[in-house]
Every structure is written in structure tokens, then in C-alpha cells.
Amino acid sequence: MRAVILAGGEGTRLRPLTSNQPKPMMPLANRPMMEHVVRLLANHGFDDIVVTVAFLANQIRDYFGDGSDFGVRMRYATEETPLGTAGSVLNAAEELDDTFLVISGDVLTDIDLSAIVKAHHDAGALASIALKRVENPLEFAIVITRPDGTIERFLEKPSWGEVFSDTANTGIYVLEPGVFDYIHPGEVVDFAGDVFPAILEKKLPLIGTVVDGYWEDVGTLEAYLRAHQDVLDRRVHVDIEGFRIGEGIWLGEGADVDPTARIEGPVVIGDNCRIEPGAHLREYTVLGTDVVVKADAFVERSVCHDHVYVGPSARLRGCVIGRSTDLRANARIEEGVVVGDECFVG
Fold first, then answer.
1. Domain 243-345, CATH 3.30.565.10 — does that match?
2. Rounded to an integer, what distance in angstroms lies between the CA atom of residue 45 and that of residue 31?
3. Which residues are CB-neighbours of 180 under 8 A, at least 6 positions away?
4. pTM to 2 decimals?
5. How far is it, in rounded angstroms, from Cα 5 to Cα 283?
6. Which end of the chain has the smaller Cβ count within 10 Å, N or C?
């Protein structure tokens, strides 16, 4: 089966981390977010993937290439101007002549995609939406379904007085090529706001399938840190690179950890990292490739991207550090702080 990955967004809410890289390329446990999506698709037999790209598209193309390294075939459809979720899929329509799945390149999920496709075919639907029960419906687009699974209506980010359902739209859709009749070329068109309401109006079969499994829209910096914690707690089934040494400690190739360094898992240490004497890494720390943690430095609940330098006796807590940033001796980076790429903190 074919799948479309939407990878054209700029990820403005994740700036400064997305200033120099597209959001789907943001590392999550040292793999780009979109790589986790590609691996999930491959596991469910989606071996023919079209990727819609726009912002810094070459970074995505260079990393994934033709998809052969991931066991899939990948092609790219480029948006010159933003066209919305449906408009960008229409851009790839000539590749999509049979049932296909649409998924965002910047979600973290392990839901059963095969089950959604089966429910779609069983219902003979034109379009199916994967729905997930959420604790706080106010943050999401809520979908109200009838007992037979057909969709009654949509509510975009409702107020408490409007909440009649806790099933959120995950942005994962199974569609027939007939949906292209409801997408006007060259216009900004969204599935949730434009296409699905039009299908509802025509009383065509539109169903919602409530799915189990993990799903997180990694749209904010808080969600980014939370997603890392969920990966390390194994609340979501994704591969973590490295050798597992001890309980919840993953060590990359060529990493050098001094015997006097203290490591309390779960922790991921990337390839070619160097952890010096007396350094202390505590739970939910993720270090990218070539990260240096100098003597007596302390890192807890923090994510450091590739080539970060953490100076002697520096202290990092609950923060995210961008690529090639240099934190010198005794620097303190506290809760909720995000430092962009190539910064220097004296």
C-alpha cells in the first residue's frame, strides 16, 4: 500500500530548534522524528511512500534518499507555496491511484495502521480518520461519531461547554482517490476544515476509528521533552539506537564513559560521546552524537543535540540544547530553557 507523509511544515512553535532544520528532522532519541514514522509504515507493509516537502526540503531528501536504506521506496512532491494538508496531498495525486494512508512526519506514534486500513475497507468508506481518546480535549480537533462509527461532526479546539467527546483527530487518514474531487487545485485546502465537512454534506461514507497505542503531536517544546521521557519509559514502541547496558542505559558506538562518571537511567548516550571523570547524568538525559560532558558536570532531564560541549561543573536541568552549542565551565541552564544551534554560553 501507499502512504503520504506530510513533511512541509515549518514547526514555528518549536523554534529556535527548527530555525535551521525542518520539524520532521528534529531528533527524537537520536533519530529524526520522521524516521520513526517511516519505520512504523514499513512495519505495516507500506513500502511505497510519497513525501510532501517545502521548508528546507533538501535536508529531508538528503537523509532519506530513495528510501532503500529503510526498506521502502520514497518519492518527493515539493510545495512551492503552502497548500494546506489536503492541497499538499493533491500535489502528489498522480502517484495515488488506489487506497492510501496520510500521516504527519512529525508525530510520535506506534498505533496499529493495519487495523485502521482494515476498518476502512470493512466499512466501504471514502475516507477514514484515526481517532485517539485524549485527557484534555481543549487542545485538539474533536470528532463526534455515531455508534456505527460514522462521523457526525467536527469541533476545532472546543471550549469546555462544547466538549461532547474526548476523541481527537490524530491527522492519520485512510483515503480513496475519490477525495481529490473535493480538493481544488492551487488553493489552500485542509482535510479537517474543508474536505471532510464537504464529504459529510454529501452524506458519503466518512468513518472514525478509535485506536489504541501511543500518539503524541510533538508540536511544542514541552511536548518535545515529554515525548523523550515517554520513549525512555518505553510507553511508545520505537527503536532506540545503541547498546543497552544495564537498566535503561543506551550507549552509542565509540562512546567513552569514564568509570568514575555516575549514570542513572533511563539515559541515551549517542555515538562518539565522551563523559569525563565525576560527571553525573541523571534520568531522561539524551545526548546526541559527539557530545562532550566534562568533569563534574551535571545533566538531568535534558536533551543535547549533536556536537554539544558541556563544560566542567556546568549544570543542565530540564532543558534542550541545540546543535554545536558550547556551554563553558559552571554554566547553569535551568528548567524550560531552550538554547538554539551554535550558541556560546560563557
1. no
2. 21
3. 90, 93
4. 0.91
5. 32
6. C
